[in-house]
Design a protein that fits this description.
The complex is a heterodimer of chains A (about 120) and B (about 300). Chain A has about 120 residues and is an all-alpha fold. Chain A contains four helices and no strands. The longest helix of chain B has 25 residues. Chain B is mainly α. The chains are: A mainly alpha (about 120), B mainly alpha (about 300). Chains A and B meet through α1, α2 and α3 of A and α1, α2, α3, α4 and α5 of B.
């Protein structure tokens, strides 16, 4: 096995792990973390394809490498927006969970008090 | 099996172990600590994949900016995971789906065509026309400049989206304070000592990005980190969303990029084309303006909007 294949398998594993976290995590913030983990894996897979394209004295194909940099930046922008949404949700309702039935009693009380005191 | 391959295998196992920890940790804070380590380990993976430019980006964004963003959110959110996590049925189904996707990706990785397709010779062949020596910078600002232009617009849209989440009665207020550092706290000393050095390093990374690994985004993120550090230490106040100075810096880079792109019609007959005689200077000018805007955008995205006073 070559080093490229090894890192490619690593990326494939990271995509699976990240997706699992994205589906099963309970808190939205943890889903955002899992989403970033998934993104990192996808970038590594793409990076392996860039590395295999090494030619003309370069260590890798610069086109996919540049696309990965753009992807990392866009992923960061999406993450920042998602985190701010979750923070605002918490500010409004006192919780970030979507399923109100599964909340422990004290959180529900806080949530109701905030809702009646704040915006309807 | 060579020694390098054994080291690679150890690195891969470490990355996967940290990833499992990040997903499986019960509390949010240790999970995010795991994610920051994951970002830094990925930066080493990128060096091993001969992508130093990506490694710098990953370390600055994956380990740095995203880490601060997530830690800041985790400190404010009081939510805890419930006693009962996702149902066992859902977990088994999700696990099967994720295994299938990983297996499909692994199959693709192991059966990639040989020899691999590459654009590296074309990228190197076009370098003299751009005047820069780093092919990745050439791809980002020249060959596929439209991608980078749109990426900056995406960042601006994210800034607008984050500001839109300001509660109505707090518009124009300062973003939430970053803790209450006292004059004799270690972070104040750190901010005084590190920030000047960090600013020089950030500018250096942008400057050498023309010919060596580095560039506007990597350098701009370092500048943003220094801005955030000085704000965390309480040495300067954050700027409100209504600050005209801040808004000018935010749009300066994308606006100049767009102006040069349209000027391309007059100078060399096409959108986003640089006349070869001035290509390097135009690229450096765009990168310099973008660096300032990127620093402001990353800083604003990490700080977040003003919060309602209780």
């Amino acid at each position: 096995m070559t080093a490229e294949q090894l890192y490619g398998l690593c990326g494939a594993g990271l995509v699976g792990l990240g997706l699992f976290g994205l589906i099963t995590a309970e808190l939205p913030l943890r889903r955002i973390v899992a989403f970033n983990l998934l993104g990192g894996g996808a970038f590594v897979v793409f990076g392996v394809i860039a590395r295999r394209g090494a030619a003309a004295g370069l260590g890798g194909d610069p086109v996919p490498q540049a696309l990965i940099i753009t992807g990392v930046v866009v992923g960061f922008a999406a993450t920042a927006l998602a985190v701010t949404l979750v923070r605002r949700l918490h500010e409004e309702t006192g919780t970030t969970k979507f399923d109100q039935d599964e909340l422990p009693p004290e959180t529900v009380k806080l949530s109701d008090a905030t809702l009646s005191g704040g915006n309807p | 099996m060579s020694a390098a391959l054994i080291l690679d295998a150890c690195l891969v196992l470490l990355v996967l172990a940290v990833a499992v920890w990040t997903i499986a940790a019960r509390e949010t804070f240790p999970a995010i600590a795991g994610f920051v380590s994951y970002g830094l380990l990925l930066a080493i993976v990128w060096v091993r994949l001969s992508s130093v430019d990506v490694a710098l980006t990953e370390a600055a964004i994956g380990g740095g900016a995203t880490g601060v963003l997530l830690l800041g959110a985790a400190a404010r959110l009081t939510d805890r995971a419930g006693r009962r996590p996702a149902g066992i049925g859902l977990r088994i189904m999700a696990g099967a789906l994720c295994l299938a996707i990983t297996a499909a990706l692994a199959f693709v990785i192991l059966t990639l065509p040989d020899p691999a397709p590459t654009l590296a010779p074309q990228a190197v062949a076009g370098l003299p026309a751009t005047g820069v020596g780093n092919p990745i910078t050439a791809v980002l600002v020249a060959y596929r400049g439209i991608d980078t232009l749109l990426e900056k617009i995406v960042l601006l849209l994210a800034v607008i989206g984050v500001w839109c989440l300001t509660p109505d009665d707090s518009w124009g207020a300062l973003p939430a304070p970053w803790g209450t550092a006292r004059q004799d706290d270690a972070i104040v000393l750190l901010a005084r000592l590190l920030a000047p050095v960090g600013v020089v390093v950030g500018v250096y990374i942008v400057w050498v990005g023309a010919d060596d690994p580095g560039g506007a985004f990597q350098g701009g993120t370092i500048l943003a980190a220094m801005w955030l550090l000085v704000m965390m230490a309480g040495l300067i106040a954050p700027l409100p969303a209504t600050s005209r100075r801040l808004r000018r810096v935010l749009v300066a880079g994308p606006a100049l990029f767009l102006a040069v792109a349209f000027a391309g019609f007059a100078m060399s007959g096409d959108f986003l084309s640089y006349p070869p005689a001035y290509a390097k200077w135009l690229i450096k000018l765009i990168e310099a303006a973008l660096t300032l805007s990127i620093a402001a955008m990353v800083g604003v995205l990490v700080i977040g909007p003003a919060v309602r006073k209780r």
